[in-house]
Known about the structure:
mainly alpha
Amino acid sequence: MYDFIKKLREGDDATKRKWLVLFSSIAMILVVFVWIKYFNTLVTSVGVPQQQENVSEKFTFLQTLESGLATIGNGIAGLAGSLFETISQPKSYLIQP
């Protein structure tokens, strides 16, 4: 592996670019695959059929996406509010002789 990295470092820019595209594509496919599997597991576990009049309600992709974005938005808004509160508070400095 070390020899491959050394050879890649010494290679020309076109070769480096090809390997970059290849490794980036593989990493992107793996991340998307893991995200989809996680998302399917999340939707399946949340959308467990309810026992009300034999009606099973599952969350759709858009409902789950909207809920997630709302949660993220609320988290960011809370973080921004606490940051603004921290910045706007009067400062006190302790000067020790």
